[in-house]
Amino acid sequence: MNHPTPYREHLQRLIPPALVDALRSRFDGRFSTAQAVRDHHGRDESPFPPCPPQAVVYAHSTDDVVDVVNLCREHRYPVIAYGAGSSLEGHLLAIQGGVTVDLSQMNRVLTINAEDLTVTVQPGVLRKQLNDELKSSGLFFPIDPGADASLGGMCATRASGTNAVRYGTMRENVLGLTVVTAEGKVIRTARRAKKSSAGYDLTRLFIGSEGTLGIITEIDVKLYPLPEAMSAAVVSFPSLSDAVQTVIETIQLGVPVARSEFLCEATIRAINAHSKTELREAPTLFFEFHGTEASVREQAELVQNLAHEHGGENFEWATRPEDRNRLWTARHNAYFACLQARPGCRAVVTDTCVPISRLAESITAARDILDTGDFPSMLVGHVGDGNFHALLLIDPDNEAEIAEAERLNDQIVQLALSMDGTCTGEHGIGLHKMAYLVDEVGDDAIELMRRIKQAFDPDNLLNPGKVFRI
Amino acid sequence: MNHPTPYREHLQRLIPPALVDALRSRFDGRFSTAQAVRDHHGRDESPFPPCPPQAVVYAHSTDDVVDVVNLCREHRYPVIAYGAGSSLEGHLLAIQGGVTVDLSQMNRVLTINAEDLTVTVQPGVLRKQLNDELKSSGLFFPIDPGADASLGGMCATRASGTNAVRYGTMRENVLGLTVVTAEGKVIRTARRAKKSSAGYDLTRLFIGSEGTLGIITEIDVKLYPLPEAMSAAVVSFPSLSDAVQTVIETIQLGVPVARSEFLCEATIRAINAHSKTELREAPTLFFEFHGTEASVREQAELVQNLAHEHGGENFEWATRPEDRNRLWTARHNAYFACLQARPGCRAVVTDTCVPISRLAESITAARDILDTGDFPSMLVGHVGDGNFHALLLIDPDNEAEIAEAERLNDQIVQLALSMDGTCTGEHGIGLHKMAYLVDEVGDDAIELMRRIKQAFDPDNLLNPGKVFRI
């Protein structure tokens, strides 16, 4: 089954002149229709061609967002929320036209409740910024999607990343949200209590809704005490399946690893070239352990034993903060390192996630599928969660490569679905996976999602054309 | 502000005779209108007077549930899902009439995926049964609401309990659900992957929906490897606030306690009488630690030091399984032990949960509020989560006591809300807290919940009159 992609879908509706006037009069210097500004907001990290909005408003407050939404609704015109622009799935593209409300200037850390292990932030706060501002508190925010994404965007895509194996995803780490609804109402979805059985879980409904149900303007997230000890390790393996099998057994044993990342040989080569590292070019695992000194030592020993049983070699430790940072910076730059392996390319990135027992089979089969392609491809993964990414480096001007990448992508996704897995572990549906979402949950579940969308946004003005077609 | 309670709300609609005929013809011996059967399904552990359904069907399969829902919908007649009958909030009461679909015979553990750390169960599986059936797998299911509740009911109320401080609640531990919708469609909300960003989070929407959005017929939950070592401890304190402060500091330090339960002096007295234990009659904490031998020792030492700083005495250890079981059985029977402290009484049970820094203040104030009442009351709590229960032991035939209990309950809830807490940490809204839900989330959030209800169940046939009024 080959799914059509919406690469060429440009159903841009022009902005009504009266709406331009109203927004300009309300927002003055924070409203723009300049082409450069529009272009900046019409691209992300996906391989889709840019598709700029008709205008951009820089919001500074929840009230600003309310006014944008109300003015757009009066003119029946779409509104698209924008955070850091790091989406991989075309979430931000204004495929039906629209006004982009840029939340990047709503970037204040509002309240650090250190004694409650919570923090309230505006949606434009970036994850690195948040951890910088938390430094003196002895606490940290673990969710780490690699890119320096905004917290609002991370909520909207239900993001996770390298620490999720231990600390969970945005789904588990958000306590409550302030949201502007399609009707311009401001709601708070929940209190700051750690758990609650009070009514329908609106928090979790907005998390992962990709800007289609409301615009998030404040976020309460959980924090964690900085572990007493942290230690990272790199180990290389004779084969991909040896590496993956080591992680599977680590998880099945219940070792509370904080991070367990897989990188294929080609990824390591790209990282060495990009980050000037000298990692052994072989299938590799990056681990991190958090806990007390004794517990970190114990976890590390257990994992080292498992790795040795699978031929793991060159166990290298990074216990000093600067060494750990170098390692994880290299991991986080893997995406850009891979892009540089083929100048001018764009990456089609898969994001399947399967039950852990099927992971080795899933990755090995993905490698075989990718090897039939005529372009370079790499594998990296948050393997402790059963989640991995294939990066297919295509020439964006080459129709044949685009089609070929979609064909391989389709095979990898169908394989994951056949293993009771998901088409997207953390990147979201966006424009790219709408057909896969139908394959994954079925028409009747999609119908319920559609009804929620219609109930929340009857005019279909919030980021229209994403997640599913109305 | 005093909220009216629906104690006297009996708007029973009679069952259409044609529906009786259709259900009897379809279900034969598994359909009943016998008064004793109806009475059994019209009561729970709440203090509300019984309110039986008009008929009961014992379902054996998802198809059975589909047929009940379809037949009831054809006759525009309510359907109420029933698991173990352990609700504390009147969830099961047929206040508008209805057919109860009893799921207790759908009690098979369908598939243990030990290598994935997941299990798929039918909704009538009881939590103790599940752990019994898991024994040979080396895995366990941690969520533990005290009562031997059904997994379906635990999903419906977003239950948690003593282990939630370490392992989370049903919100964090359900991977996916099979649900029969109001239109008789069967959907599966998600795959068995540990994480997913695929579309709106229908799983979390059904969890906590209290039977009002669909009927859950299969559940995929996470399992955990049995810890290498487990150890429990009891410690008593000079005062309530010393005990609670010890827990607050334990959480703030990031000690991964598996359980941390508070019991007031009166609760200990009731337990001693009921369970023939000889616990010191003082404010008390029960702890449990899970991990490797070394990690359990380390956690226990840390907590012991904190306890000593707050005057904790008589630290008693239970490392043998039978001693630990005796301790937790006594804890789980606390509810029934308290009921026996006043023969013939029913308990009004509060369930507030606040950010951890406000917990000591919240419990101390609750104690002061309760001391103004003319009936016995106890405090127990999952204090590591900021969640505690006051048990108000009232004579159910004494109108003055009922009114007084509601007045005190109201004060405790309003106090929690003023501390950014919730009116219910784990018991749900049911009949009792509909007005508090409005106070907690506000009219505009309630409006969104109402729209979801209308979108999923346009005829308002699934457990009508619960969570909020339509």
What does this structure look like?
- The structure is a homodimer of 470-residue chains.
- Chain A has 470 residues and is of the alpha+beta class.
- Helices cover 36% and strands 19% of the residues of chain A.
- The first copy, chain A, is built from 17 helices and 18 strands.
- In chain A, helix 16 crosses helix 17.
- The radius of gyration of chain A is 22 Å and the shape is globular.
- The interface between A and B is large, with 93 and 93 residues.
The CATH homologous superfamily of the largest domain in chain A is named: FAD-linked oxidases, C-terminal domain
The low-confidence runs of chain A, each spanning 5 or more residues with pLDDT under 50, are: 1-8
CATH fold-type name of the largest domain in chain A? Vanillyl-alcohol Oxidase, Chain A, domain 3
- Portion in helices of chain A: 25-40%
Oligomer: homodimer
What integer is the average pLDDT of chain A? 95
Choose one word for the global shape of chain A. globular
Briefly summarize what is shown.
Two copies of one chain form a homodimer. The first copy, chain A, is an alpha+beta fold.
